[in-house]
Write a structure and sequence with these properties.
Strand order of the largest sheet: 1-6-7-8-9-12
Pfam family, one: NIDO
Distance between the termini: 24 Å
Radius of gyration: 17 Å
InterPro entries: Epithelial_Barrier/Signaling, NIDO_dom
Largest sheet: 6 strands, antiparallel
Number of helices: 2
Protein name: TECTA protein
Strand content: 25-35%
GO biological process, one term: cell-matrix adhesion
Number of domains: 1
Number of strands: 12
Shape: globular
Order of helices and strands: HEEEEEEHEEEEEE
Length: about 250
């Protein structure tokens, strides 16, 4: 199905590792085999944080998202920054990879979305939040989303995939325990830790963020893609493609 194919392969059978079951937990510090360039700076380590953030050089355990820009020096990608509780449900997977089949697929995707940029992926890092619950949940709602970082050693991209978003907020952020809605909703975007280099995906920190599975800047509902070595804002296409039998909401 299109929803399934939106996500790159993940899980233990793809040699992923899993984050510990720990509220506000993170992966260990993960050294990268090649540098990843983000907002002009090369990074060699990152953390996969349970609360929907991939951060460079420092952990992000914060569970209620603040609006970007954050000028505290923290540099990170926020696929879906909110109060995840993987003790209550779900798993967080990640792997660094040079698998030829995956790199070929990522290359095809980037070439399709950015035909003017010559790019052949030589490395990727894929993190997947699989049906993760929210803090304080009394429901079985789960969110499934993914971030893929990729580079050819000079140009870097981040691909954000949103397969299923059922909640926006944990109870410690003012959310409702039964619905996972209300309060301070989740945030999606990019932050360099300074005043000028950041990007907020439309709908972030509003109730509309739950519709991120239907929005896109590359004409693929649920997928947002950005060049991030020298960050380029790729705007939402003005004319969404017709999709038979669906009512797409484009922010």
């Amino acid at each position: 199905s299109p929803a399934a194919s939106l996500l790159y392969p993940y899980g233990l059978d793809h040699n992923d590792r899993k984050n510990p079951k720990l509220d506000d937990g993170t992966s260990k510090r993960l050294p990268l085999s090649v540098p990843f360039t983000f907002y002009g700076k090369k990074y060699q380590t990152l953390y996969v944080n349970n609360n929907g953030v991939i951060s460079f050089d420092t952990e992000v355990k914060q569970y209620t998202p603040d609006p970007f820009p954050l000028v505290d020096g923290r540099s990170f990608v926020a696929p879906y920054w909110g109060d995840v509780d993987n003790v209550l449900g779900g798993d967080i997977f990640y792997r660094e990879t040079t698998d030829p089949a995956l790199l070929q697929l990522i290359t095809q995707n980037i070439n399709q979305y950015f035909p003017q940029i010559p790019f052949v992926a030589t490395w990727a890092f894929v993190a997947t939040w699989d049906h993760v619950a929210y803090y304080g949940s009394t429901s079985d709602k789960g969110n499934t989303f993914q971030a893929a970082l990729t580079t050819n050693s000079s140009t870097s991209f981040v691909i954000l995939n949103y397969k299923d978003i059922q909640w926006t907020t944990g109870t410690a952020s003012g959310g409702d325990p039964d619905t996972g809605l209300g309060g301070t909703p989740a945030h999606a975007g990019f932050n360099n830790g300074d005043e000028t280099n950041y990007y907020n995906i439309p709908g972030s920190r509003t109730d509309a963020v739950i519709n991120i599975t239907t929005t896109s800047n590359v004409r693929v509902p649920g997928r947002w893609v950005f060049q991030v070595d020298d960050f380029k804002v790729t705007e939402v296409p003005s004319e969404p493609p017709p999709v038979a039998g669906t009512n797409n909401c484009w922010l």
